[in-house]
Amino acid sequence: MSGGTDITRDGAGGGEAEQAADGTALLSVRDLRTYFPVRNAWKRRVGWLKALDDVSFDVRDGEILGIVGESGCGKSTLGKTIMGIHPPTGGRIQFEGRDIAGMGAEKARGLRSRLQYAYQDPGASLDPRWKIRASLHEPLIIHTDLDQAQRERRVREIMAAVGLPETHLDLYPHEISGGQQRRVGLARILTLHPTLVILDEPTSGLDVSVQATVLQLFLDLKREFGLTYVFISHDLAVVRMLCDRVAVMYLGRIVEIGRIEDIFTNPRHPYTQSLLAAIPEIGGRKVTDDFWLEGEPPDPKNLPSGCRFRTRCPKAQARCSEIDPPLVAHGGDHADACLLSG
Amino acid sequence: MDGFIFILRRLASDRVAMLGAVIIVALVAAALLAPVLSTHPADIAEFHPAERLQAPSAQHFFGTDRMGSDIYSRMLYGARITITIAVVAIVVAVLIGVPIGLIAGYYRNWLSDLLMRVSDVFLAVPQIVLAIAIAQTLGPSIENVILALSLTYWPFWARLVYAETRASLNETYVEAAIALGASPWRVMVLHILPNISSSIIVRTTIGMGGTILTAAVLGFLGLGPPPPTPEWGRTIAESREFLPEAWWYATAPGLAIFLVVMGFNLLGDGLRDILDPKIRRSRQ
Amino acid sequence: MSGALLRVDDLRVDFLTDAGRARVLDHVNFEMAAGEIVGLVGESGSGKTTLARAILGILPANAAVIESGSIHFEGQNLLERDPDELARDVRGRLITFVPQDPFTSFNPVFTIGSQMMEIMKWKSPLAEPGQDGFWRTHTRKRRQQDRERLIALLQSVQLPDPEAVLAKYPHEVSGGQRQRLMIAMALSTDARLIIADEPTTALDVTIQAQILKLLRRLATERGVSVLFATHDLGAAHEICDRVVVMYAGQDVESAPSAAFFKAPAHPYTNSLLASLPSREHGIRGIPGEIPVLVEPPPGCRFHPRCARASDECRGARPLAREVESGHSVRCFHPLMAGSGVES
User: How far is the C-alpha of A116 from the C-alpha of A94, rounded, in Å?
Assistant: First the structure.
């Protein structure tokens, strides 16, 4: 199995620092489209739900890229399309320089071992009928040729890295706490020494005091394993604290992308501006005093013409309904898709 | 397996299910120990015309039949046939139905549609009618009864496993295993199957009762194993011409069928209460 | 004291669970004045939902046991009133409820209009309060008046095209609109107190901002009190006049919003505010986990996770003490005003 050799090399040599150095893209997504058919009561297709529509961005080696947006903006579909859970309708996904979008499951398997996906609750990814040891061995059985003893050694290393005692290996998921399940879920992904991990809403539903612990764990693991993260979240405060760059999505499009400092101090797209204005800030001004965004996102099955945000945008002009604005860079790292921002 | 002990303990506290379990254990014991327990073991094949149609007595607990054979002894040997038919038929039905359900549930393509439509065709005809038709065509013998039952029962497992498989594909741990790159085979056999096994066990237990009843119906209609096999359904059929005078003739096999079917249903209901995924989840 | 709209005294509620008796509310005290918006802040397992349900009188009868205490609403102890009378005259009329997930609060097979009119039939201010029975007439004249009232309410919660919304089924409107409908419902009976349990948790931030803004405006305009149960300190900061913090079934701190967010006095509250994500000070969690309520720690329930804990804290639960006017804290070693988040 081709994946096996790759893994062993990573494990033995630790040469991963060399690959894709000096800020080149670890993951490169171009014009990615994922459409879902909309069917009527007779199962006949009556249209498309454009969950992702011409999405392009790069993830650089070693960074944390945040993907933010509200429900229905396509951020979760993006993560799952990259992982091959949803088949893309069009576009390219390059990981470590190789195209994985159209690749069959078998061929992609070797590459996929270094590209991993963490569920909102990584604990839920554990089979309730399997002991934790079996769950942690499974990725290695699938992707490597390591023998039982080698796998066991790797599993014990990972357990130590996520801060769990080895005795937990003989327990079932329901016998440990939710926080520990979360750690095991992450450990399971890390056994393969991935380079890129997609974190899908990892803090949603968590209390703040627990959230802090989870975020700290992500940072510790990133340092220890040299990881790159794509951090999908609806929580801008968390994204602001954790990420290096952020992409803002609205109705299947990236409307703005750039460095955290740039986006949070100088948002260009009106949607980004309203999103930032909606974050409650303790001790500061009250959002509810002057929040100006009205209405709700339109039906994604029936998108407005031109700019998708124009129906809610206070600055919208006539041409916004005619031209669908592309994502345009305005110097350096900061790009946005608004006709009026230039 | 602490899970197994847990199930036993819960079962022990459920009196109705325990009653079912006791009946089933008694049935199995009767079948296994038939040579020891029976008072006239030779009567299965021998005739004693002089003693025909005698009422229950100390010598013949359940009376004698039209050939003068001891009904009690014949019932014990009949239990062996009943268990053989039910177990083999169910095992075959499960072996056909479960893989079909798994494959049809896991893949979402023409193959799964085809498999499900085939099982729909089987389910469209009342199961007993279909079994009669098959048994009729093949001729009366134990093997053919088993074949008829397995061929008509497998769609129930296929349907069940199909639905459960579809549902478990939405479970995060299954999706996670797929995302991890696990092969379909691995996902189906190692992740999905163990997690839906409790539903299969419950369905199988309840299905046992149904299978025994159908087997008895086939026997009653003369489609079962030929005489002088002491099959329960056939015994009832034989008794009809001597009713109501020889009331004991039909009573013993009738009660036996009733008790065994009820036993499996009670145990199945009890198991379902214990193994129901929702109840289990709330426990965790 | 006499000015209090709602006063909860020494309330103790236990839940019977498989694992044993869980002490979900442990001698909780708090009060709120008429017209006040009070944030009931706590993490999961803090007991805020149980408290909200106790006030509404909808604790699960087979599991919850009210051990002691009283809940006075407009001077009457709700716990001593006849449950039927409570259901008829108080709940849904004087005290109304806005749930977290408005979707499950509507029956999917009836239109929104028919469901809201049904409630108006029973609980509208035009309905005679004392009338008993399973069946109740809704005269055409009253129906007309109720409907006009409803439309006016829907306009006040800024629902576009109220007539059309009433004709729709619950799944045909968005989450934000459903929450507006629930708020309209809560206001429709001229309630004195609205209990809102995590009303914006399921919503996106921009919708949350809209709903919070709406809730605050309507409460102020109509002089309704709102008890706003939330785990979201940011949302509480947005609309609350006063904040009551719960931890593991105990009320630990109560303060005017401004003072509270500037200088929290309880070590738990302080850590909670510090664990909010911030680029400036990085990540700070609270060590340890929320205690199991079947065997809660003795004394102050926060002491196992508290850096300031002493033997005193293990021995007894501290009495409430005022650190400044209106700002009380149950702690033997409170942080004094000014030391704030930075400590």
Answer: 14
